[in-house]
Recover the amino acids of this structure.
């Protein structure tokens, strides 16, 4: 085997110099060895009249997972799986101008342009050096040829279009070397099969629940990263994902869903059997209540108080999402984006927002947004996004923007993204004070009631163009009358809001709580207190629905 | 031809995966749930006036799938799927028809957006035998399918009112005798551990061949039962299993042409697949072919006599004939309807007869992939004569009647999750003008000379291509993808392998030009994709001598072969397309 001698060859070309400084030994992990040996050869990639690569990186993701799902006490699916996927990145040209951040002048393609070929090229799942190298060889070859074509197209575009203030394509970053121990998926499959089934059986006694599902997906994924600059990272990401969902139709035919989710890092972060059934019961009860709840008779414009999960979900949509993926694709219109207002007041001055991916837990609960090193191989830096209402920075990968040049270690799949978002108020107020304020605002607006939202629903924030706030749901919303009476309402939905809503934040609670959820396919955590927004628009439902089912749901004997 | 009809095929060789059960299915919870729910649905929906369905059917695919694949000696997928429940699924398809057999909710709406309407009746059911939980799923899917049918029927009536009368006034649904047929439940288990090691070894054979860029060995199996019950009283449970081992490889010629090839083996259960020795020799043959193809010359546009060898002839007939005699296409006014008006007319030379026979489990000793006892509309499979002595005599029929045929002949097929349409099963081409293959080859040479052509062609291997049966913008053309093609010279030079051959032409013309056939009938087993999904099919044919086949050079990719030599052959003399390009690890 000529592995060792390859590593000692030394490398030509300045941009590869750093790699020679990488440790000669890459241990006995065949995945690392295959990556190192093939990246080492990639310097020889050359075609006539085409730039050589100045930066090459390989990512290997290894996933071991267990999935179990049940409905009404009966198993609907169970599987165990292991797979490994590969992605590579080849940059030709120079960091100032390379083959990336270009999508043929089609702005909507911009986000896809930064990652070559997605991260789903399946490769050998066995620890097989030869088979993994073969796939790396083909992937690097293909990416290099693709990069060569892209840079030619991009240069032609820049020749024929007047592009002002274009930032460099790739920024510098310190080289990371985070090689952590491998972990095994630890889950008692038989016990969880039983527990998930039992939890799903709760819905049998709710005849109003027309469909329901309880599932657990337990997985450990290992991320490998190696770059020609000498970065070498490997770490494990364990994740446990419990999902509960149920649906029905109201008497008027409106389709209704209710859901809940619990995400954790290990089995110990999950509830035990009895508590699982309580969560399922909660979903069933809330759905039953929702089916009987009235609808808004007219659209609502007024104060909205977000509490519990809804508070975290609100900030994910209103701050996290708009401050992600800051680099504009070539030719994209520059208008109305929150992140263009760097250094300015974007929110009420009582608001401070931070993000720290390196934090593992909060008040003893796991923070799912944690990672030791980002997808560009950069160690994350804690950042203050908003300081007393002023926008200070945004989520940065190694792709610079005209305003921010350096990565802050927030790259996920090549895009600056949310990790652990912390929202703080310099004037925390009690629940009672918030409710009082809500009532007062409603009265000032000549409204009979104010609205309280407890959950915006799974999926949290929707991906947006970054020019407005798109709030999903709400899943659970109440109207609160002047006398304090709370009434669940169904079928309400938010109209898109402007960023003005951030300045309309009137008060925040003293009750920070944690939401672990998925956003843009990534695990994220948000810690936020209740928040009262002075004015938002809520739509009443449309009035035509499908008919109710042709017969009552078949009954269970127990 | 001596067709090897084995009568009713019983899955005796299989290990039973379920406990012994009553022969009439009375103790089958799935069947109980189906029977009860369909009765409930008909009873509850009867009072809905104009919106009442006249027919409801439930179909369940209750099976386990196995998928394992390896490349370069290592497992790529399926490695940890040792959980006995992995791949276990139960998929329900509910069909609800509103209206009457004369005109119902499935009637094609003309001038619409095209595409098909699955009707919302697909539901993933619990995989455990909990009758009430199963019934909730059935109830939900019925509700969706019924609402969708009511909506659809409304559109059908409106469409009918504003459009001119259709040419084919046949009913929308044929009434068939309800069948009761309960087979014993049987299934097999795959020994994953043993197969993992077999696939690893087989896939490792490619490691010593630097020019083969991609290669995989994949094993895909499905084993279980299919249920069908309907509101007319049909009660069917069939055992239904198949497994396929596929070896694929691809090379890239120096001019950037990608040349993929595959070998596959189909069987009803894993123990019927070939031995390791046979698989290895077939893999080696594939490798040799790929390596020869990489450096083979490309073809120039050519038109002249050719032999389409037996298995390739099967694919040829499947693509350009079989798809065109699928019954429902004959009344699709937005389709091409090549044969709609050709009934009782000559469509091929007199010596050719064609039938489709799903009831055959084997041809001689070879497993036939298109075997089934009942189709997905509850109709018993039948042998259907399609061409008799050159004359078109029939169509493949599901329960969608056409002008000339009011009934199904058991060819209404679909994969789980899609509504059935008429499809092929085992297409069988027969001939009364047979000569031994060497004689057929001599005839090719004399035909070549007679026409003053420099060479004839021999198509040894054809991969299923695609057929446009549509009218309008798309041409009435077919395209099959010849994988292994030889030039046969009249002067006695050895046959020459060529690459990059595309066969082009229009279907009717190429049929007329069949001059003779061999006596070497062989089986092509494969999977066919169409609007009702991917289905196992077979085609049996002798080699065909065709007076004229037109070929052109296939469009090639632009990417040249990899710049660096393969990692496992880093020192090999690696061809580099550009003289400026540099390669090799030693620098």
């Amino acid at each position: 085997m000529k592995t060792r001698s390859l590593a000692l060859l030394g490398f030509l070309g300045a941009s590869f110099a750093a790699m020679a400084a990488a440790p000669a030994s890459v241990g006995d992990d065949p995945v690392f060895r295959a990556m190192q040996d093939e990246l080492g050869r990639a310097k020889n990639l050359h075609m006539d009249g085409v730039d050589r690569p100045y930066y090459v990186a390989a990512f290997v993701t290894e996933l071991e997972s267990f999935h179990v799902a049940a409905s009404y006490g009966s198993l609907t699916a169970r599987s165990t799986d292991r797979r490994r996927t590969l992605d590579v990145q080849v940059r030709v040209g120079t960091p100032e101008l390379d083959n990336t951040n270009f999508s043929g002048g089609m702005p909507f393609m911009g986000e896809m342009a930064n990652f070559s070929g997605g991260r789903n090229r399946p490769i050998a799942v066995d620890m097989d050096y030869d088979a993994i190298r073969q796939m790396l060889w083909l992937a690097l070859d293909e990416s290099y040829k693709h990069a060569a074509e892209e840079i030619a197209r991009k240069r032609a575009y820049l020749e024929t279009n007047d592009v002002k203030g274009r930032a460099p394509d790739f920024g510098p970053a310190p080289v990371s070397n985070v090689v952590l121990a491998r972990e095994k998926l630890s889950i008692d499959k038989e016990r969880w099969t039983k527990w998930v089934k039992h939890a799903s059986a709760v819905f049998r006694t709710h005849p109003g629940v027309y469909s329901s599902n309880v599932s657990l997906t337990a997985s450990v994924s290992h991320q490998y990263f190696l770059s020609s600059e000498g970065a070498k990272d490997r770490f494990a990401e364990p994740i446990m994902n419990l999902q509960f969902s149920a649906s029905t139709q109201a008497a008027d035919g409106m389709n209704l869903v209710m859901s809940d989710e619990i995400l954790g890092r290990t089995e110990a972060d999950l509830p035990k059997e009895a508590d699982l059934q309580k969560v399922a019961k909660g979903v069933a009860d809330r759905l039953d209540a929702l089916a009987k709840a009235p609808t808004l008779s007219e659209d609502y414009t007024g104060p909205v108080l977000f509490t519990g999960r809804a508070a975290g979900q609100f900030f994910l949509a209103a701050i996290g999402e708009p401050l992600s993926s800051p680099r504009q694709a070539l030719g994209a219109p520059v208008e109305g984006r929150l992140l263009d207002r760097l250094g300015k007041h974007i929110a009420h001055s009582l608001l401070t927002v931070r993000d720290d991916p390196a934090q593992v837990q909060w008040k003893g609960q796991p923070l799912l947004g944690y990672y030791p090193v980002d997808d560009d191989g950069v160690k994350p830096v804690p950042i203050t996004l908003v300081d007393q209402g002023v926008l200070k920075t945004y989520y940065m990968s190694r792709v610079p923007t005209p305003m921010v040049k350096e990565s802050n270690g927030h790259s996920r799949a090549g895009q600056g993204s949310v990790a652990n978002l912390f929202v703080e108020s310099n004037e925390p107020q009690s629940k009672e004070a918030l409710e009082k304020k809500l009532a007062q605002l409603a009265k000032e607006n000549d409204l009979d009631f104010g609205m309280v939202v407890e959950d915006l629903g799974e999926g949290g924030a929707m991906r947006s163009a970054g020019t407005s706030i798109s709030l999903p749901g709400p899943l659970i919303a109440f109207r609160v009358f002047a006398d304090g009476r709370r009434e669940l309402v169904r079928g309400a939905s938010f109209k898109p809001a402007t960023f003005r809503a951030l300045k309309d934040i009137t008060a925040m609670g003293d009750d920070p709580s944690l939401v672990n959820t998925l956003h843009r396919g990534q695990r994220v955590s948000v810690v936020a207190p209740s928040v009262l927004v002075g004015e938002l628009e809520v739509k009443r439902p449309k009035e035509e629905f499908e008919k109710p089912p042709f017969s009552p749901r078949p009954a269970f004997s127990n | 031809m001596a067709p090897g009809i084995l009568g009713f095929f019983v899955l005796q060789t299989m290990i039973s995966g379920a406990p012994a059960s009553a022969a009439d299915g009375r103790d089958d919870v799935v069947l109980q749930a189906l029977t009860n729910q369909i009765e409930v649905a008909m009873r509850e929906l009867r009072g809905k006036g104009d919106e009442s369905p006249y027919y409801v059917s439930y179909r369940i695919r209750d099976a386990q799938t196995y998928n394992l694949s390896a490349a370069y000696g290592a497992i790529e997928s399926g490695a940890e799927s040792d959980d006995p429940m992995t791949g276990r699924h139960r998929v329900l398809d509910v069909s609800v028809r509103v209206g009457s057999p004369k005109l119902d909710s499935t009637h094609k709406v003309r001038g619409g957006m095209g595409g098909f309407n699955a009707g919302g009746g697909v539901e993933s059911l619990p995989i455990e035998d909990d009758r009430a939980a199963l019934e909730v799923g059935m109830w939900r899917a019925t509700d969706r399918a019924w609402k969708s049918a009511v909506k659809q029927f409304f559109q059908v009536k409106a469409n009918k009112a504003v459009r001119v009368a259709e040419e084919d006034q046949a009913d929308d649904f044929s009434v068939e005798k309800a069948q009761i047929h309960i087979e014993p439940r049987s299934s097999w288990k795959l020994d994953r551990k043993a197969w993992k090691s077999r696939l690893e070894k087989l896939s490792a054979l490619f490691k010593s061949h630097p020019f083969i860029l991609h290669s995989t060995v994949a094993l895909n199996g499905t084993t279980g039962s299919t249920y069908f019950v309907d509101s007319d009283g049909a009660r069917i449970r069939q055992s239904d299993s198949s497994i396929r081992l596929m070896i694929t490889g691809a090379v890239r010629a120096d001019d950037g042409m990608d040349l993929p090839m595959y070998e596959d083996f189909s069987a009803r259960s894993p123990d019927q697949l070939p031995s390791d020795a046979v698989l290895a020799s077939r893999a080696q043959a594939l490798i040799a072919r790929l390596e020869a193809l990489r450096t083979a010359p490309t073809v120039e546009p050519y038109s002249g006599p050719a032999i389409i060898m037996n298995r390739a002839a099967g694919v040829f007939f499947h693509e350009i004939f079989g798809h065109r005699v699928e019954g429902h296409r004959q009344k699709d006014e937005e389709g091409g309807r090549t044969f709609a008006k050709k009934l009782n007319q000559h469509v091929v030379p007199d010596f050719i007869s064609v039938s489709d026979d799903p009831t055959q489990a084997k041809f001689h000793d070879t497993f036939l992939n298109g075997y089934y006892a009942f189709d997905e509309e509850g109709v018993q499979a039948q042998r259907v004569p399609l061409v008799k002595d050159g004359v078109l005599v029939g169509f493949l029929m599901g329960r969608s009647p056409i002008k000339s045929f009011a009934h199904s002949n058991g060819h209404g097929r679909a994969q789980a999750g899609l509504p059935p349409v008429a499809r092929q099963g085992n297409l069988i081409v027969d001939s009364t003008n047979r000569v031994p293959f060497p004689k057929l080859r001599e005839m090719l040479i004399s035909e070549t000379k007679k026409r003053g052509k420099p060479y004839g062609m021999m198509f040894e291997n054809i991969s299923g291509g695609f057929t446009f049966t549509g009218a309008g913008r798309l041409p009435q053309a077919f395209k099959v993808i010849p994988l292994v093609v030889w030039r046969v010279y009249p002067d006695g030079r050895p046959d020459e392998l060529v690459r990059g051959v595309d066969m082009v032409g229009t279907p009717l013309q190429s049929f007329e030009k069949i001059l003779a056939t061999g006596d070497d009938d062989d089986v092509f087993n494969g999977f066919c994709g169409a609007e009702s999904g991917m289905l196992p099919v077979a085609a049996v044919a002798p080699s065909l001598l065709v007076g004229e086949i037109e070929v052109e050079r296939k469009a090639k990719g632009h990417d040249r072969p990899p710049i660096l030599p393969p990692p496992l052959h880093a020192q090999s003399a690696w061809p580099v397309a550009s003289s400026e390009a540099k390669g090799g690890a030693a620098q």
Helices of chain B lie at 29-45, 131-162, 192-204, 276-294, 310-320, 437-450, 507-512. The longest helix of chain B spans residues 131-162.
